[in-house]
Amino acid sequence: MRAAAGPCESAGMTSKPRARRIIVGAVALACALTACSSGADSAAPQPLSDTARAEVQRALDAAVAAGTPGVQVVVTEHGRTWTAGAGVGSIEAETPFPDNAEVRAGSNTKAFVATVMMQLVGEGEVDLDAPIERYLPRVVKGEGVDGNRITVRNLMQHTSGLPEYLELPQLDGDYDTMRTQHFDSADLVSAALGSGPAHFPPGEKAEYSNTNYLIVGMLVERVTGHPFAEEVNSRVIQPLGLTSTYIPAPGDIDIRDPHPLGYEVVDGKPMDFTRFDPSWASSAGALISNGHDLNRFFTALLFEKLLQPAQLAEMRRDPKPLTNRNGIEYALGLARLTVPCGKEVWGHGGSIPGFRTYDGVTADGRAVTVLANLRPVDPAATAAVQHVFDTAICQ
């Protein structure tokens, strides 16, 4: 589940893939191969100039040529949205990426969960600098791990030093088994903290570990008395009208239509990995969404529609460079992203079996989401998809 600001990255797999090798590593026909625009205000400027759109389309085509089956970009600016794509949503059927495509959004889940947490902070229910032991007694413990020394802030900023739960052997089953197997977050946290020593003392540096956000989700549940998915739904998804965004219910292995198929590389060939129970990802990465909703969410968050100014400022304060994610500075569930043109961009991103997403918003309000239906094992292919995001942000 490792990725640049996302929970998952793939590794090589055998003909009968082991799940850890997959878990560890996140337009309609008329518009699919060209572009389409939407928006209510016809007088508002369209996102991107014609020249910029042509550059983005070239980047999309290059990403497909580099090995990703299908890529889609959604750009929202001035209340208008432009969508473009290249490649296919299904290799077998040779169908295009559908308009409003829903995908597994991976670690973008963390930004949603962190938003709920910051609302609880604003309500006086949680103190960022309190030890996690105050809220989850006897949960965060292990060799070199002391819940009295690890704060809520440490967890949200990946400065806790906790081991990565995705390295656990119980996530090393066959794909056919893992497709429907359900996992409990508390069990995964307990196993991870018992699997080895802390990587470093709390606060010494920032190292991306998905274990942190399993615990943040557990904290939301302890404080509110409700499943974290219910809190994300009632506090974020419903108020923003994100009709294509949800956290799958237990046992739900499907993605609602419209959606592309998601692929992993197995023995050098793409394997359909669309359907599986994402309970192992939970509050670290189980979210499903589309480009329009992700742009709306990050824009609302960064322009104070979900948090009071003090909580948003705290969420973005003092981002730390992640030692295991190049080009990412991490705050509290939000990442400051490095782009070639030097613009200030905040967002997140996700990587989970079958899908890779890139998400960010510029200071002047351009929101960009890139969706890809394969997590490349070739660095050049990964860079080509990243280039789509960079181009849409910088043009």
What does this structure look like?
The chain is α+β, with helices and mostly antiparallel strands. The protein has helices spanning 19-23, 29-32, 50-65, 108-122, 152-156, 175-178, 185-193, 211-224, 228-240, 282-285, 291-302, 309-316, 379-394; strands at residues 35-38, 70-77, 80-87, 102-104, 141-142, 145-146, 263-266, 269-272, 288-290, 320-321, 328-330, 335-337, 345-347, 350-352, 355-362, 367-372. Strands 1, 2, 3, 10, 11, 12, 13, 14, 15 and 16 form a 10-stranded antiparallel sheet that branches. The protein has a two-stranded antiparallel sheet with strand order 4-9. The chain has a two-stranded antiparallel sheet with strand order 5-6. A hairpin with a 2-residue loop joins strand 5 and strand 6. Helix 3 (50-65) runs antiparallel to helix 13 (379-394), helix 4 (108-122) crosses helix 12 (309-316) and helix 7 (185-193) packs across helix 8. The longest helix has 16 residues, at 50-65. It is globular and about 55 Å long.
Helix/strand class:
alpha+beta
Number of helices: 13
User: Segments where pLDDT lies below 50 for 5+ residues?
Assistant: 1-5, 7-18, 24-37
- Let me know the largest β-sheet: 10 strands, antiparallel
